[in-house]
## 1
Amino acid sequence: MSSLAPPNAVRQELGFYLRRPGLVLSGAVIVFVLLCAVAPELFTSQDPIAGVPAERLQGPSAAHLFGTDETGRDVFARVVHGAALSLRATVLSVLVSLIAGAALGLLAGSRGGWVDSLVMRVVDVLQSVPSILLSLALVTALGFGTTNVAIAVGVANLATFARLMRAEVLRVRTGVFVEAARAAGVRWTGVLARHILPNSLGPVLVLATLSFGTAVLEVSALSFLGYGATPPTPEWGSLVAGGRGFLATAWWMTTFPGLTVAAVVLATNRISRALDGERRLG
Amino acid sequence: MTNGVPRRLAQAVVVLWAAFTLSFVILYLLPGDAVLAKLGGGEGGSTVTAADVARERAALGLDDPVVVQYGKRLVAAAQGDFGRSIATGEDATTLVLNALPSTLSITGLGLLFAVVFGGAIAILGTYTRSRLLSQFLASLPPLGNSLPPFWVGLMLIQVFSFDLGLVPALGSDGFSSLVLPAVTLALPTGAIIGQVLAKSLRTQLDEPYVEVVLAKGAGRARVHFGHVLRNAALPALTLVGVLAGNLLAGSVITESVFSRDGIGRVTASAVSAQDIPVVQAVIVLAALFFVVLNLVVDLLYPVLDPRLAGRVTAKAVSGV
């Protein structure tokens, strides 16, 4: 016990979470969804692809938490199994924005001159077209499928990352320690990797967590429009789309998958807000 | 003030050119083959021969060197010609423009809802003395931003069309069929307006002039609506260009949820058919919207805020 944090700090830590039940709940939602993505069989033993025709279009019950669809598939099982694909697409899209955006921002901020102007004009153009139209154009060119949707959403959102990264690099670049390293004869690439990158990456990583929610929404919107995985494979957006024809008779088919998306977005937004500043203020 | 106009027009043209170029790079240079998609070569249709593909490619001008293709298309696009729809053979520009009125009616009503509700949330949230109400109102915009719009649309149909039977669920006829799509579109937009305006109002309320006006004996309502709101609403105007773009983009989802005709439907089916000319026409139209609205806002600004008129002239004179 003595090697751990002093009891006072532990109590403070506990108090921080106790005063924020919403944050704790958000954490629980995210942990649950991640577990669904990694090990869906933990939560449901029913088959997400093959249905039981005799049990078609049943309302929510103990046996079928979210009801069943028109071919007798368990909607809860489909939502749980859909988590893997939907979350993978979200993470991939955020990674694309983060890596490509940060690289462009780093290039622009560190090289300056015409490279900077060129990169920033490209970023301006990316921002002048609404991001969903941009990702639709990319999907048109790349073709359909979950991976292409993720890449399209990622590219459409990279402008903000490039801007922030550039601003951070410009701020760090003037630091005394950078000057000292340069004066000591460290090569430019060394300064970049050792000093500028680590010191400018923080806010960009926070932006990445903040953009998770938007990415979930955009990926599921494209999946809803039918540009994601091919039909029997469950994805959150396409699950909502699948229930459209049954709004009048089977409300559960659209309501629950949609609620899942909303819950995940709300939870990620709450957590990233906490990461963004609340934590530091305690 | 007149000095700034030619420069702004030139900027607007540059943005349009850039949007065209970006869409050209994405649509014509990235791998993927619209010709194959049109001829149905991908799935089962094994009757497509290499000769068919070559003929189709030549007909669409996809065989020329990239620079020639770009030049030709840029000249044509400047005259409003984006080529013929690969899927239907119709002129892409006509196809998009014909769909415009229907989309404008829901985006217009959507913008109205967004301004009214977003504005009301921001104004009431900063005016009320109840901490609870103010916190509740402040939490609404983030919530509105977190709900998937396609799902919200379907839930509205569920409740108002099927359960209550108040409005028709689908289709494009009559005013009553406009309401639900407009509400769906207004949700994310209203959330942005609510957030930005509330922030702007809070900043203004901290300004010293508020204390002066209060000290002179003005009531809270008079300060809030007569002074603070007038100052706070101006920065929110800059959002208009962005919001219009969002509304246009939102119509892709809304129109497909409500099975309405319009730009969004045209876009969605063009993407499905990999109909490059139509997608490009939509993107350039969106950029045109953005540019024109920003231009109008820029020109209106000095009229609404006399302080800026002086500043703009000063800028123009110093050549910045």
Note: The first helix of chain B runs from residue 4 to 29.
## 2
Amino acid sequence: MKPIIYVPRDSGALSVGAESVEQAIAAEALVRGIEIELIRNGSRGMYWLEPLVEVALTPGGERTAYGPVRRNDVASLFDAGFHTGAATAREHKRALGPTEQIPYLAKQQRLTFARVGVVDPISIVDYEAHGGWRGLTAALSLDPMAIVEHVTTSGLRGRGGAAFPTGIMWKTVAGAHGPQKYIVANADEGDSGTFSDRMVMEGDPFMLIEGMTIAGLAVGATRGYIYLRSEYPHAHTVLNQAIAAATVKGYLGHNILGSGRDFDLEVRLGAGAYICGEETALLESLEGKRGMVRPKPPLPALEGLFGCPTVVNNVITLASVPFILAEGGAAYRDHGEGRSRGTLPLQLAGNIKQGGLVERAFGITLRELLYDFGGGSLSGRPIRAVQVGGPLGAYLPESQFDTPIDYEAFIKIDAMLGHGGIVVFDDTVDMAQMARYAMEFCAIESCGKCTPCRIGSTRGVEVVDKIVAGTEREANTALLRDLCDTMVGGSLCALGGMTPYPVLSALNHFPEDFTKS
Amino acid sequence: MPVRSEPVTDAVETALARHKERPGALLPILHDVQHTLGYVPDDAIPPIALALNLSRAEVHGVVSFYHDFRHAAPGKVVIKVCRAESCQAVGGDTVIAHLKRTLGIEFGQTTADGQFTLEPVYCLGNCALSPALVIGSEIHGRATPDRVDELLRAARSGA
């Protein structure tokens, strides 16, 4: 039997040479006359081990991992017999043992990411064999309100950052009237330190398709759009391949699985505007306009895309739905704590030794993530600050590392979980410069609709510069706080309204960095 | 009004034929034009506006709103380097400074030989392997000045 060798096509793996490793394996096998089957999977999310090559001796058999594999490791891997499961292969310097037993992976609770890195992302057969479409099949047998009920029971909240209860949004759209309803997946994953949407789209795209189709059945929508950021060309390719495959097999399009229900899906590319991750700006962009934020109300649930009732959900939110329908809302709700139910795919990024994706039930602490999973900083220096929740998230000092991952616990410390990105900084970071960057980023990405964000961000950069330069430091610090107050209270959306979080947290927790000169 | 060059007319007509009837067609059309020409020329705007029943100002407004759309032809190879927090945390600024110094250009500029255009990007979603950059269509992680030199050499020789 031919051994099966997995080399990820995930763009993170590609960024450290997966393509050249795959070519080397294929070439080496050919030269040696060894028959192998090469499969391009997604990433397991252990990025410091990428390119992570896995070998299974039989289809569905236990997988053995090797990583990080370089092009010039390939010949010695064949010499050691990694393709035959030889004992000598276990001694190879890249050998990691059975993949599932690597502690980073073994300690996770992968509900949403169960298949990511395991399956061939564009094989519908693989998807089925690993529990795919069970949620859709269940949904097709249910009344629309019963689907919404499952989602409500699950306690699922918007994973894009707003944490709004998904069941309530779906119920609103289900009860709204319009000539057409839409499901929009927000795949404009622009927060630095986040890549979970990308991993799903590159590694298990059928899960997103299934989740969106279930949403369509629940609210009576027959059209869906995935609004994908243009920075994700690999995800674009995989999604289009998956949509084509699902359509051919009758999981998408007209008369889904003979049910008489329709759902058409299309990927639309953004064009490099961070603000289009804000749901109303996203809708404007989908309509072919400038990505300007709309005032709310009206809610997109009632007047969304082209003025019609629209569900706008983050990729992870929608990708969580197939599990909820397949296993029941209660099975999802049984994970987590308080009002934060289920799991959150966390992303460890920046100056971290073992960066990657960690899916765990709510309740795990930052410290466990940073040290037990992350292994401390990449540089080996002390971790001084972490930014949770992207460019609009607060900077947290070491004294707050015991905060549990929980929406309400983070609100209590004037922080937010956002999309679950955790960017780590060691003690060489200059927090005044990070505060300045937060304002600068807001100025670059502001849509310009409201004054606090458009003008406030530019003034913010100037005021930080004055504080750092020592110009009327006290007065300018008071001015910066006042400006932040105006932005929080007076901005139309989260960009202007939350840019003050990183700024004020830097100022409050690391004041010494503002007074160095 | 200047006469449109043939490639521009062709690119616009092809893009319009492909997307004109789709709801919210403007972004797909602009992406197509830029994909073909490398940028969205000013003289592409009037025919797009006419076809979509928009004013030229509206189309110009969309082109200028989005960071992706270029107003001038880029160099042979476009380099997009990440400026965001995760990359800053592991020396992204050093990589950016090195690129600017080596190429002798700032963001938004093209080298005199027309080889490279340097653009900032705010997150490539490769944050566990920061610093990240894209050269042409290839993404690279764990960038260092030395690694960047190797990649530039490879890009120059067309490898």
Note: The longest helix of chain B spans residues 6-19.
## 3
Amino acid sequence: MTDFDVLKAEADKVWDDLQSTDGVVYLGTASCGIAAGIGEVKRETERWMAENGADLRLSEVGCIGTCCFEPLVSIQVHGNPPVAYGPVEGRTMGGLLDSIITHKRYPTEALLGSIGDAFGDVPSIWDHPVTATQKRIITENNGIIDPVELEHYISQGGFEGLKKALAMTPDEVIETVLESGLRGRGGAGFPSGRKWQMCRQNRTDKSYMVCNADEGDPGAFMDRSILEGDPYRLLEGLTTASYAIGADEAYIYARAEYPLAIKRLRIAIAKLEEVGFLGEDIMGSGFSLSIHIKEGAGAFVCGEETALLASIEGKRGMPRPRPPYPAQEGLWGKPTVINNVKSLASVPAIMRLGAEHFASIGSEGTKGTAVFALTGKVKYPGLVEVPMGTTIREIVEGIGGGVPDGGKLKAVQTGGPSGGCIPESMLDLPVDFESLQQAGAIMGSGGMVVMDEETCMVDVARYFISFTQYESCGKCPPCRIGTKKMKDILERICDGNGDPGDIEVLEEIGSTVRMGSLCQLGGTAPNPVLSTIKYFREEYEAHISDGRCPAAVCKPLVTYTIEPDECIGCTLCAKNCPVSCIAGAPKEAHVIDQHQCVKCGMCHSICPKDAVKKTSPGRKEVVE
Amino acid sequence: MTARIDGKDYDIIEGETILDIARRNDIYIPTLCNHPDLSAFGGCRLCLVKVEGFRAFVPACATPVQDDMVIETTEEDLDDLRRRILQLILSEHPSACIICADREECLDLHPDPTKAGRVTGCRFCPNRNECDLFDVVKALGVDDIWVETEYKDVPLYRRDPFIHRDYNLCILCGRCVRVCAEIRGVSAIAFTERSHDATIGTAFQGPLVDSSCVFCGACEDVCPTGSISSKMTRWVSIPEVTGKSTCVMCPAGCAMDVGFKWGRMTITEPSEEGENVAQACLKGRYCTVPLTNSKDRLEYPRVTTDGVLRPVKWETALETAVEGLKGFAPEEIGMIVSPSLTVEEAFLAQRIMRGLGSDNIAIASNMAGPMQKAWGGAMDRVAGIGTMTDIRDCDAVLIVGTDLSLTAAVTQVHVHAAWKDGASVFNVKIDPRKGYRHADVIEPDAYGPFMDILLEEVKAPGQQPHTPDRDAAGRIASALKDADKTAILVGPGAFRDAAEGTQVAKLALELFEAVNGTVLLPLWDGGNVQGVLEAGASRCLTPGQCIEQDSGKYSSGRNPLGEGIKALYLTHPVPEIPEGVEFVVYQGPFGSQVSERADVILPSSMFSETEGTVISLDGRVGSITSDARLPNMAKPDWKVFIDMGRALGLDGFDFEAVADITEAVGLPLEPGTHLPPGEPLPEGDRAVRVDDAVNPVGPWPCSATRYRGREIAEDVEDFLEVAASWGWDE
């Protein structure tokens, strides 16, 4: 056992040393950075160091959230705060280091700003439009500290919350969380403190704490960023929660598809056990906890809490009816609390800064911040943390920078496959549990996909229902059969074979699935379909009655034609056509043989003059 | 505590679900996945009800009822939802007939046996008229399907013995999976795949034969559709006559529902009335019918003339037998009594022998002799203590000499129930079969020495140097001693050698007393060994197991297969006819190598064709009834014995019906009741009351895997072959 204050002093020293070191390169090394090519940047940096005999310190940090600027590096020299650049490529890294370190000049190209105050010509990254309106609580350390360095986390105020909590009684901890108004970030928004209270009341000899890190929504990566960028924050929250409910064992159910997150969690757990923040008698409080990591096996339904528990127990991940709720009978029949990564990651701040501080952020009914993974047709996609109650427009147009290249925004999809599509007209909707639910979407775990006019809403509905259908566990007929029927009908509509009355049948199946399903996978599965029908019914009708896809997305309904006046006869399209159905002499207008065309779109994307037009003329206008 | 259902208040019982209380009060809530014996599943979504204070509808089957709950079960929106869910189910189930307006007329008119392998409607469904799906359709009034119907077109599983699986009919209620895991403790099948392709199957969808399946048929019995059907009955459809009977394939004495058609037995299914709690095993469930209807049955009385067995009239056969038997002195005649005979038949058999003045009677069982010797001296009767259902309450169960897979397999249901309540289960066996999966299996070199060690460890634990056997024995001993209630089951595997068997039986009884046990049961190697003993059809015994050793009424009897025997009356095959035997009468349903050498053959019945009483291993009285026509000239054994007794000119054969014989046996043979247990005698009274000369005979070619000499199979794997030999070509 190490005394916390001693450890804190050491940590502060380590952090101050790092801050005052001349020549530190921070590399954004979360999965996103690695995929974007940070490895190449790192190699290039090492090569540059060897070539120039420079002695730079490399520090691998998590994801700061700006996916649009990956790979992202920050360089700290000359007594200035680190300055972030992105996107940086391997081949430009040498030049960047040359100018900053050798020539003491901060180039403006790819400059994001200083991670700290502005100085000289370098603005602060916190004034950048992408970050200016964000409120970073859960992700405050992301991209700043080295995720596996315990000292870094402690120096940023880490484990002060836990220390405070352990000095309280468990009931006081629960009371604090209740006062903070924290609601479960997994989707349903159940007050976390109430859940803990229920579990504590039902506890007899044993109870379990479980962290749900089975983030499975397509396009969502909030939990991963937290696990990869700040694992100690989650572990601190998990330990606090375990103390509050009286659990001496906790599980983190993490996707096996997150190997880096799992690796960093394992390192973090080992370090915490070493210093006595985990294991027997934590911080001398007499409270003991062991944390196990359970890797999921690739089933979306295991994000549902009863299926998740079954999976931990080694059974098939199938939900069971509630009640009894997990807080009554959970893991191996013992009272269990299951909290989302973001809920638990909010806990350290609540404990450290107090319930009032947390409750002062956010909207009337939903306190704290919301973390979104902003993706799709948006200029600055990335991880976004904003106070609850922020409008969708502020997120999409303010932080996200709107639709790029002058496109027109059509809808925003929240909540992943369980969520719904919100049309452009409703973008002033504030982000909180109730408002979104009323609009037919859900907060979900925090995916936010922006769609422009080139997105077909029927196709979107088909995509999401295919996903939920594939991920259905098959236990109850509404979900197993209902989603299959909806998928079949949507596929038919997208193929141009829709029948009048299909929309009504979709609505009826949708309501059956929603009301009849056993778990929320099925209960929310029709949302993408029902919300698109609600707001974009005319698109469905165009598909069914006119055989036309207004966004020209559904392949069977799309036609490629070459505008003779615009064609310069460069022959590129004819050379690249996989079925050789484009005829035309060089320097003369080309023609596509519609009967042979497989609608691959190659000509459209390769044409240097945009002379190939992609349209969906509708049934009547199809040229025979 | 009360709950309000549909505006009326009902008293509630702690822990029951909404469905329980509704059923108790005759309130109909439709359901498909629920089964009273199984855990709640909440999958079919038909039992959804509205409960005040709940955001969504809740499944009645899985929701515990609480005080002051306000529940609605019949509102229009609920019924609408149920109907729509049911229609979704029907859209994937070949259900044209279910919603057909002409269903009733069609049922009367269409041909009866189902001659189609692939089911496209009710008329081809092997489950016809027992369909839960149809009941729900009727109750909810569904007469159309508003979504497109789709035949799933998944392959049929037809390669397994006994069981035919067609998952095109499956509605994934999961009953089969639950019964396999929860009741049988086997878990051969589970949910596999996911999404719309979710189905039920073995690991990697292999055949059942390669899984841990023991073909008990429990899955077929709980299946609400025709997905799982019995290969032999799917072609014969609904029986014309049904009745209640008792299975004599093994000593568990399972109560069975039996069905007959065209004068033949066509189906045996476990009944809910017995201690077998509506469970059976592959022998009772799937082997009785094909054995009964086997082409190899003995059909005509035969007499050897000029070295050739020729069919003759019954009179001729009986005359020849009488002539032959009367040519020998009483002590030269021996009789082998089949453990598959009813109490009445065994009673008549011993009456014939004793009428002839001979006590040379032995039961064709490896266990009966050693048990009689070991327990006869220490207990007032050779019988078990406690019942099979008592095992469920035990905290420690020791199974010696069997794995429960083919001997009294249904006992495993009770053992599993005990295990689920936390009992430790030990299985001491040498058998290579897999056995009960949750048991701590100990495989010693020999039973006798191991039981010795075990008893030592119970009486003086930890005194001897460690060996693997002793460590295992220590483990068992401490569990047995720590338990409030213990059960000890002794099976035929320990009786392959008579001397060792006697030792094991003695030690088991000592062990039982040392740990102050609750249940001690002999898992006999024949269906009615207990009943035959009760009928007095063994040396030194009279009906009611009065030991007549000292009365001088009979000689102590000879080994019927031993020295000095010149004439044999066999009702069960023996390994071989001993040297010196000059005359053999063979009575039975099946021929054997021995019957080839018989002088007279009397074709008789299987248990499925006779009437009478049998007694299970725990003393439960079961009755046998039948509506089957015997093959050609074969007669029930009791009739053959009466004819024989009369032909021999003996007294006491004036019976017209089986009931008269039952009365003559003089035992309290009330079906469904238990005979008194075998009480251990006080220490001082433990004089040897059975002569050591009562030597066990054996080993017999009778075991858990044969019926009156007819081979069934050693292991599940063999059943493919056996099933083929029974003429199932599908």
Note: Chain A touches chain B through 34 residues (CB under 8 Å).
## 4
Amino acid sequence: MVLTRASQRMIGRRLLQFIPVVFAVAFITFMLLNLAPGDPAELLAGEFPTEERIQEIREYYGFDRPVIVQFVDWFSSAMTGDLSNSLLSREPVFDIIASRFPYTLMMVTYAMIIAIAIGAPLGIAAAARPGSWVDSIATGISSFGVAVPYFWVGMVLVAVFALKYPIFPATGSVPFSEDPIGAIHAATLPAIALSMSGIAEITRQLRAAMIEVLSSPYVRTLRAKGLSRQAVLFRHGLRNVGITVITVITLVFNRKIGATVVLETVFAVPGVGSTLVHSAVNKDYVVVQGVILVIALVVVTVNLLADVLYAIIDPRVEAEA
Amino acid sequence: MKPVSYRDPSLTDNAAQPLLSVSDLSVYFRAGRKSSNRVVDNVTFDVARGETVGLVGESGSGKTVTGLSLLGLLPEGIAWTEGQIGFDGKDIGKMSESEMRRLRGRHISMIFQEPMTALDPVFTIGEQLTETLRTHFPMSKREARERAITALEDVGIPLPHKRVEEYPHHLSGGMRQRAMIAIALACEPDLLIADEPTTALDVTIQAQIIDLIMKIVSDRNTALIFISHNLGVVSQVCDRMITMYAGQVVEDSVTDEVLEQPLHPYSSGLLASVPRKSVSSSRLPSIPGRVPSPDAMPPGCRFEPRCTFAQAGCEAAQVLHRRADGRVVRCHRHDQLTLKGALT
């Protein structure tokens, strides 16, 4: 399980790809936001501003400069950790994200734990006995999870477990650092809603991958050696579906980060998702850019981590890379 | 390293009794909601300790299915068997799953056709060897590793202490098949079933693998069932040759006798279609037609539609004749025909 030289080289190459990907994401968002209708200067100038006042604000913020210059200016300071200040609150964007991100991370992590804890055993149990009642339940759950929109699940959960039976709060959030149990309690409903599609995806993919492994010729060899069904399933099956597990978890995690944009608004969680929506609506482009850059960084880092895990789990990765 | 006794004291070692005794074995495969096909039909044969027996026939004759049923490895819920499989006096068909598990890899082993896919790609050769040993013997990891290296050495793999750390994709096809053989023979089984072990390999490697299998089984007095469509190879390896056609045994004779004078027209046809360098005729003879599919078996002799000696009486179902000379054949004309062998 030690990384070979070839795997190390592969990881090195992935690290080098990291920079251009982040740069491209930053560049495209910056340009798209510039194309979006509405002038932030007009917004900042307040009601009935004079043309001179708007021009003054443009010059003050540097909006009058060529877009490319604005981008280079913003990106180079972003590299040093300075994401400039919110147009609305004047607060540094970095501080806004730093204070909001823990809520998002907590919710997504919670949802991932639920999705893996339910999806993985369900998928494996279904694959061990295809066509059985366990398999039917697993297939049913995964069809339901894929088909149902998570914000709708969220609203149903609120209606039942917050309004009718007030077990969990309908909205709001508690910082994990101050009150861990309260934080988990408050994040339960959004996390369940967020985990639905993840449960579905993990169950489905793991079931398919495990069935493929169990029908491969080497499983027949293992049985011919006298290994029990359990040893084949848990020892050989799990290591062989490892690649699929990592891929699915990465994919689901990245999608969940995106889904927080809607779900945090539904549950009024002060995370980066709701910040993004709020800033976009108020044309606070500086905050939007900062949040997207940070989300891109998180996604790329998670993907890099997945690549490292591939190299550790599957000895053939080095041969293919 | 303390010696491990590979001899199982529970084995009777009764020389008079055959090691394996298959009688009236039929294998059915589900073909629809209510119907099934009998792909192996009342197969009967014995294998003595240390004996090498060839199971020959075209694709679809039921050789591999017969082999898998001896290990109880037919796909569950899709295939089932009838008849008895006696191994060392015990009926395999009546064994529980855990009893079967103790038999597999320990007393009966099997090697498969595809060395490329028959080994787990994410486990090292060493792991795959030691887990077999540790499944059947109480052994420390260290001890199992030592034995794994010896086992690889025995099958002629160079630098075995290095190879144990390597994964199957590091090895060539021939080396993988050697590793496969090492795994199958790690526990010194009494019976080895080799299912087309050389078909997927280069011709030069084929000869090496066959020599290796022959050497090990004769050194250790392991009984061998060698499944192949290649009569040339089988005649080299096996004392006795069982010819199967469309799920039935059609002939069971000592190899030399078959080569000299086969009793069944199908055996004769197979022999004629083995390429030989002495014959300079322009075309290699072949048997016309194909093996009938299990759902469209001829009611009488199954080979009759393809047989050049077919006549009145052949449309009747054929029984196995046990001749005075000990040979077994499923053809009512076995006394009348003088068929061409490989040597005549």
Note: Chain A has two domains: 1-88+282-321, 99-270.
